[in-house]
């Protein structure tokens, strides 16, 4: 491990969605990259179809939220290779332009150091790369950007019911933009609609495509191990760090 | 929980344990139980039938947990509820499958169950003058009904009674319905991508 760090050009802590994608891009560009990850080295073949098994992908037992406003978010977090992106539901909604200026507009939290227009090309690039299904035209509230590369996923029965209710009230609805393949895309098949997203998707139609992205670049990446965090301090104003 | 790469076992019911077989077996509910120094891959109900020794829970705690489970979901005890929970709280929390993990219970899982079961008996003694396992069926149901809607005033458990109820009920549901066989009971097609190896 120490030898790998000595030889590397880039050290990334955490093999979640951001860490693995950045690692893959840097490795594809010829950089020597080491990714440090405290959790399990999940692979797609570990995604057993079981609601019980799926819980091993979630949360980080032993890590405690402390402080004035402790939070619990085990079910939508995850440790290990892929992080929470292994089991999340792949909703991929763009931020609105005003979301970048919440301090200026609403007097809350903090403004981002850049605006939506600066981020927009990267939204477009990411959705082309990972594949997002959706209906941009139906999203009347969607900020400027390329349409989605795939049509929306099929609407299921409960959504039909909700849609009728919204229509009766004259309210607009759109399919949720989702990083799940509605059709074959970039060599990966389409969703089978059998509901095991929560347990991880071994046929990689969901954003467990992070795995394949890293697989492409694995030759240039070394995976190391680190000891995890033991506590996350959530202060009264949610801005204090451990 | 330390998993050997290859650990052959000859005892009936056991299978050659590899990381892969272990991972797949979890899908159907087979877990690694220790019996006489040997690792056995058993379902919780099989572990109960073989009277596999509990590692963390006392006999009284297991009896209380089974009584709670059977009140919440008749059949949960026979499905191996106490062996399931005991196995899960006795290993590395990183490998835990309990709903307590999913819900972000911050306390060490073994401590959570011990304190909860102690609180159950304390509350039962305060109201009825006896341990939960000794309550009548009607008293047990009254106890459970009181737990669910709002926090009990004198409750001493680590979590208020509504989330405690949620966790205990889910444990019972997990061990009874959370497997391929459980899906069959509910007549829900399982449709796995990676199918677990055996059925309960």
Please state the CA-atom Rg of chain A, rounded to the nearest Å: 20 Å
Order of helices and strands of chain A: HEHEHEHHHHEE
Q: Percent range for helical residues of chain B? A: 40-55%
* Gyration radius of chain B, rounded: 17 Å
Helix-strand category of chain A: alpha/beta
Largest sheet of chain A: 3 strands, parallel
Class of secondary structure makeup of chain B? mainly alpha
How is this structure best described in words?
The complex is a heterodimer of chains A (242) and B (200). Chain A is α/β, with parallel strands linked by helices. In chain A, 26% of the residues lie in helices and 8% in strands. Chain A has 7 helices and 5 strands, in the order αβαβαβααααββ. Chain B has 200 residues and is mainly alpha-helical. Chain B is built from 9 helices and 2 strands. Chain B has helices at 19-26, 44-49, 59-72, 81-89, 99-102, 109-128, 137-147, 161-177, 180-186; strands at 31-35, 38-42. In chain B, helix 3 packs across helix 7 and helix 3 crosses helix 8 (161-177). The longest helix of chain B has 20 residues, at 109-128. Chain B starts with 18 loop residues before the first helix and ends in a 14-residue tail after the last helix. The model of chain B is unreliable at 1-28 (pLDDT under 50). The interface between A and B is medium-sized, with 31 and 29 residues.
How would you briefly describe this protein structure?
The complex is a heterodimer of chains A (242) and B (200). Helix content of chain A is 26%, strand content 8%. Chain A has helices at residues 2-7, 17-28, 51-54, 102-106, 116-130, 157-168, 210-217; strands at 10-13, 33-37, 64-66, 221-225, 231-233.
